[in-house]
Amino acid sequence: MCLGFSAIQVRGPGGPCTHRPRSLAIQNAVKCNIVASAIEFTTPKSLASGSGGKRFHIGEIVKIYTTAPLEDPRSARTLYPELEAIGYDGAFSFEAKHDPFLTLAVASEHTQKIRLGTAIAIAFARNPMNLANLGYDMQSISGGRFVLGLGTQVRPHIERRFSSVWSKPAKRLREIVLAIRAIWESWENGTRLQFEGEFYRHTLMIPAFDPGPNPYGPPPIFTGGFGPLMTEVGGEVSDGFITHPFNTRKSLLENALPALDRGLEKAGRSRESLEIMCATLIVTADDEEALAASKQAAKRQLAFYGSTPAYLPTLQCHGWDGVHKELNALSKQGRWDDMTSLITDEILETIGVVGMRAEIPRLLRERLDGIADSVSLTHNRAPDPGHWADLVTALKAIESTA
Questions:
Q1: Is residue 300 part of a domain?
Q2: How many domains does the chain have?
Q3: Spans of the chain below 70 pLDDT
Q4: Dist CA 80 CA 345 (whole Å)
């Protein structure tokens, strides 16, 4: 899929030089002169739906990513090279017990070609200038392999854990993305920094704090989200959108894609300018006993998600509203163990991709065909010791013959 990267003329120490990448989303946020185009991803074939909307066939080359949970950030020195050797196209960190950027800085020094990104870094715990610096530096350190993935977290964590401001989250995230791009535009082209929004104002940039053009161009910005407003923002301003694993094929088709389409239409962008990355719960094992344990762990995770009102739309797509009400009531009573029994095998297999290892590549393709440009394999409650190396090999073999 094409992310709409373009070559542009920028100032450099020795005069103008041509840089890449430059996203279409930047062009929608700030004025710039396009010189030529460069394609990064295979463009997916589009399919027309009966409702008049757009549905898209998975590209001939599917990008396979994973999220790398780290209990010890020092293991970044060995984990990311292992993921690269397996054949992953990208590996993402997320903001939990450790800073998501520092581990990737370490990983970039121990890898050569794998894409490195945050999925996600919490935008509201930072400000656009801080994020612009982090994105710029990670792009330089990684040799142009970085993806700045941003999300919002939820109100209690923003206000009580980070002591930051929570208000109008979709509008605020949209503005953060546009502000970051305005800052990068100033650094790339030497234009005056003049960003004034509802939440953020950036109008001062002096040479002492201007790093100049990035040698690899600005990194792409992905956003993650779930609800219709946040998803629409992804279609409007992001280079890529990361779907939540608490989705089904039906909820992606009926909820996520139409919201992304609305955002794309609002910005006057084509579908080819957006990478849809589907984080997908993988539940598999080599034998029935191990599979049962993996399924139980996944059910615990889904029970937690299902108790949260924000994730109700996925359950509503399948008429499971009552399950949410029960899960929510039990969560308020602290009866976490009792919640797991409410997640039936049907619910698990509709949200997750469940089966013996040999079945997963086919099931995963069936789940995401016509929806995703890339997939991120995940199961944080029961991570695969071999990082699904066999599945990556099988998926790449399928795509090479597709």
A1: yes
A2: 2
A3: 1-61, 399-402
A4: 33
